[in-house]
Amino acid sequence: MDQISDLPVHHKINQLVKDLKLGQTNGSYESAKKTVVIIQEVIDQFQWTNASELISQLKKIAEEVITAEPTETVTGNMFKRVLKIIRDEYLNAKGVHNEGDIEESLQKMMTTDEDNTPTYDIKYDNLKEAINDSISELMSELETSGLNIAEQSLEHIYPDEVIMTCGKSKTVEAFLKYAAKKKRRFQVVIAECAPFYNGHELAASLSNEKINTTIIPDSAIFAIMSRVSKVIIGTHSVMANGGLKAVSGAYTLALAAKHYSVPLIVCTGMFKLTPQYLVSHDQLAFNKFSSPQQVMSYEESDMATECHVVNPVFDYVPPELVTVFVSNISTDSVRSQSLPQFSNHSIDGNKSVSGHSDDEDEEDESQSPDKMKTMFLSLWNNVKFGFATKLKTRFSYESPVCLLGQFYHKKLTDNNSSRDDNQSKSSAIDMFRHDFYSRIWFTYRRQFPKLDNSSLTTDTGWGCMLRSGQMVLAQGLLTHYLGRHWRWKGSQSDKEDMIHRMIVKWFADDPNPSCSPFSVHQLVRFGEQMGKRAGDWYGPASVAHLLKTALSKAAETNPILSNICCYVAQDCTGMSLDCALAFYCRTQSDFFEFVHEMKEHLIPPNQTADYPIFIFNDGNHSPDTNSLTKDDNKADRLLKVKHRFLNSDGKVEKE
Fold first, then answer.
1. To 5 degrees, how large is the angle CA 429–CA 431–CA 434?
2. Is residue 552 assigned to a domain?
3. What is the pTM of this model?
């Protein structure tokens, strides 16, 4: 530090150290920004000739700043980021563009006698300019992190939801305000976060933006949680294992959300990601403690002498309680971010011990870019959509599996008693798999053409019911044109292949209705007539009516669909034309056996009146309610219902 004591930046370093010790920093973002500004000035004012001298000086400053307040992790994070930038730019100037070329496995490092640690003592003329450019990008990332997080709010906050949070987080505040600015209506419940009561400040700020806000005491969190749609909180730091160092009270909130299966969303910038761990829940090293005066005032000194009062600032929230992280890095930029390398580096620039064997390193090096891309996308989707654990598939061989009316069981295929039992199991599973992957699957997509009157190019987070409706209709069309027993073989007949491709094309994400009459674009267009907009959540009933309208319109341009009609059930009645809902029984004895078995399900407990069985028949509108004749010339087709009443013994008494 003696070499920079005469530089103008030395005063700023002392001021930052003082602010950290006195707790006068205004949040993690301001601390991170001040740290980067100081580092930039050190690089500009300090007379260094090579990267080694600069790294040595920054490490001394980092030690002083971090020691001033060890719990303020973002200052250390910024020094680590900048030191990594310096080392990377030095290697780029040296001509080593792939850091993996100089890194070795732990086994090789321990068995070799040579010291292959890279040195940074060569002078390069353009190194300072390259470092400043990279630090400017880091500063830009910090400045835009809040906005980038807020812009994702519409993907996580849906209309008429109840959002709960605790304390005051500037990131969460901007997140909620952005959603409200985009006309998304929701209610916010804020735990006051005693004894600091920061929740009152957030409640007042949101109320000024006309957001429906309710403040509750911390003791009411569990009682209110059952009515909450999701929990959204900020965090001070994200630990290396995915755990949180969050405001005191966040752990209680997370436990209550876990109990009621309410998703917990964490809004945080990537500059808060730290390589530190919580060791054995060591609160003395992990936490920061405030004055107990806020809990027990000095006027109660007589009682204070009889007890030890602790007022922690932070809570540790384990990673298993977190559902989703919303950060300033989008799905696309995750692949190119040097975040994994940064997380594994220390101030000294040495790789942390990861425990990988030599074989594992060779396997990692052999992975293709496409495979790595897939792994990163899969990892991001797991974090974004909350599938944090791998689900183990359990296929019971002793119970049947039903897929759209088809049953699969080893006993159903084991007609030959001499057949090997393992072969029977394999046959049943293969048949199920063949049927399963013959179904058409629609799910969230991104980067399709913009939806009408919107800038959205993805249906992530709001189009789930539209996709489900598409699958229902696609399955009906497959069954209608190819039959329920049709299977995808990869080499079908030309006719089957043409029909299959035609059905899939009808659902493509193409805004042209003549090519794709059942696309998301077309369904959203019809949704606008119901008062829905792109990005709004659709319920099952809404989607049913959209599909009915889409099928009717599609018949005008696709003659092959002109003989297909869709009926939406109203008040528990209805099916589609040329379709009946019934239970098939081969003989009269089978029918009465069925009635006996199903009586307890058809007749609710304490039901005194006769319980009807509905038989749906296809007919036309006619004054004669008993008429079941069909008139194909009439466009006004109506579904008729015939009632059969059972007596207390389950026998048909009247029709």
1. 105
2. yes
3. 0.52
